[in-house]
Amino acid sequence: MIALKDKSSGTILGSVTIDDQLVEFHEGETIYQIAERSRRNIPTLCYDDRLEAFGACRVCVVEVEGIRNPVASCTTLASDGMVIRTKTDTIEKYRKTLLEMVASENRDLDINELAGYASQELGTLLDLYQARNGRFKGKQSGHSNQDDKNPFILRDYDNCISCYRCVRVCAEQEGDHAINVMNRGFETQITTEFGNDLRDSQCTFCGQCVQTCPTGALTDKKAIRAKDLDGEVHKTRSVCPYCGVGCAVDILTKGERVVGIQPAMDGPANEGALCIKGQYAFDFVHHPDRLTKPLIRQPDGSFREAEWEEALQAAADGFKKVRQKHGRHSVYGIASGRAPHEAAYTMQKFMRAGFGTNYIDNCSRS
Ligand code: SF4
Ligand code: SF4
Q1: 258, 274 in Cβ contact below 8 A?
Q2: How far is the CA of 211 from the centre of ligand 1 (A)?
Q3: In CA terms, which of 3, 92, 161, 356 is 20 to 30 Å from 118?
Q4: Which residue's CA lies nearest to atom 2 of ligand 1?
Q5: What is the CATH number of the domain that holds 56?
Q6: Distance (Å, whole) CA 336 – CA 333
Q7: Across the strands, what pairs with 235?
Q8: What DSSP state is assigned to residue 91?
Q9: Kindly report the CA angle at 148 between 193 and 213, in degrees rounded to 5?
Q10: What CA–CA distance (Å, rounded) separates 277 from 152?
Q11: Strand ranges across the sheet with 61-64
Q12: What does 30-75 look like in DSSP terms, one character per residue?
């Protein structure tokens, strides 16, 4: 379950009794939100805290006194005096049966962690409820779309559980509406307009559908290439270097190799969102053409490698020569739009104090 933060705020409307504990609740809070806030662990599959609750998977059911059937806690608003039980034998049995049924429909239940941020959610719940027992057998749903030729997203709907998190994140978070649901029951299918490949749809390849998919039906094609590389997957929290927004990312590495990027769901600037560059454009890190040492241009136009001290000295000598010959306004500084405030400040100081010119600009200004 993707959880971001405690959203309890606003007017207190009353209190509920949840597993014998009296808890106040706020306007608009659901049973699920109150339970999370009071540290109860209710399992979910179709839930993503960033999205409107949907109530499709029913794994989050709870008992409410006075209501005959269990209710989906993610879509049921709390009301004053409610008495709720989140973990009775009956409820746990319902959850296990639901998971057994879900498992019976999918081809693969063991998904590599490189598939996506939430890709382990179904497998983890199946283990928790010991639901990989093959109790239900029969037709499997899904229409794999593995031949979609886009370079980033593997669409294997044989592993889809129709939670619609992908469709909802694309619409609600990204605003792209690139994918939607068609047909019903076993014929349910996630599709693009006219069933085209993603490249011929409104998709911006932000990767959000991949990262929220709880089953690996949507898989990060680039990251999964590293599944057979030796070593554990390590995540290192960092900040995307592509622009000044400061999206938080987890860089996935195996050994010395960067193998993928996942958005940080708790990143204050992006809350799990990334653009195509932040999500997929990391190949430059290991590209053989990447400069790893400073180069100094020779009189014949060729470059030779140098140490930093020598290269910086050569640059400073060059600047001085130009200033002496053509005056202080002969140098013009353009700061990168990718630079943070501190670097931009240093840049203008360098130009103003170092060269005595106000000829400065920023590449973001157009
Ligand atoms: S592809 Fe994944 S996220 Fe989309 S509906 Fe299927 S299981 Fe859910
Ligand atoms: S990559 Fe982004 S835009 Fe494309 S289908 Fe997924 S969520 Fe929608």
Answers
A1: no
A2: 10
A3: 92
A4: 213
A5: 3.10.20.740
A6: 10
A7: 252
A8: H
A9: 80
A10: 11
A11: 21-26, 12-18, 83-85, 61-64, 71-72
A12: BHHHHHHHTT-----SS-BTTS-----S-TTEEEETT-SS-EETTT
Last residue of one domain, picked from the residues 261, 286, 311: 286
Ligand 2 centroid from CA 11, angstroms: 36
Q: Which two tokens stand for residue 45?
A: 């599959």
Phi/psi of residue 247, nearest 5 degrees: -65, 130
Of 212, 201, 205, nearest to 168 by C-alpha is 212
CATH code for the domain of 105: 3.30.70.20
Closest ligand (CA of 176): 2
Mean pLDDT of 240-267: 94
User: Nearest 5°: CA angle at 261, between 260 and 266?
Assistant: 150
Pocket of ligand 1 from Cβ distances under 6 Å: 160-166, 190, 213, 215, 217-218
Residue positions counted in the chain: 366
Instruction: Read off the pLDDT of residues 72-119 as tens digits, 9 standing for 90 and up.
Output: 999 999 999 999 999 999 999 999 999 999 999 888 899 999 999 999
Using CA positions, which residue lies closest to atom 4 of ligand 2? 203
**Ligand 2 and 190: CB distance under 6 A:** no
pLDDT above 50: residue 4: no
- Tell me the one-letter amino acid at 90: T
- Closest atom of ligand 2 relative to the 210 alpha carbon: 6
Pick the last residue of a domain from 286, 303, 334: 286
Mutate which of 173, 197, 205 for ligand 2? The one with the most ligand atoms within 8 Å of its CB, which is 205
Does residue 207's CB lie within 6 angstroms of at least one atom of ligand 2? yes
pTM confidence score? 0.87
- Which tokens sit at 229? 């590389």
Residue nearest ligand 2's atom 2 by CA: 206
